[in-house]
């Protein structure tokens, strides 16, 4: 139905992925929430958070970039820091 948000779990190669479809762009809200989770305790082991532009994805392999290229993420992947503002 129109106007509803749909969230579902989908089997992937290494576990599960979450898929979400929404009637509006929630990127800004989700960005702020995920950033607050990643950086809530400065005393903990550092967490690395990346914002990914799905339009730049060339293959599913890029989602697993931390296995082969963590120091040089693929084009369209931006590392988020505590001082990073939401793009929009």
List keywords for this structure.
alpha+beta, two-stranded antiparallel ribbon, single chain, 88 residues, 25% strand
Strand order of the largest sheet: 1-2
The gyration radius over C-alpha positions equals: 15 Å
Mean pLDDT: 83
Number of helices: 1
Oligomer: single chain
Strand content: 25-35%
Biggest beta-sheet profile: 2 strands, antiparallel
Structural class: alpha+beta
Number of domains: 1
Work out the number of β strands.
4
Low-confidence stretches: none
What's the shape?
A: globular
Distance between the termini: 27 Å
Q: What is the helical fraction, as a range of percent?
A: 10-25%
| Secondary-structure element pattern, one letter each | EEHEE
Write up this protein.
- The strands form two sheets. Strands 1-2 form a two-stranded antiparallel ribbon. It has a two-stranded antiparallel ribbon with strand order 3-4.
- By secondary structure, it is α+β, with helices and mostly antiparallel strands.
- The protein has one helix and four strands; from the N terminus they run E-E-H-E-E.
- It is globular, with a radius of gyration of 15 Å.
- Strand 1 and strand 2 form a beta hairpin.
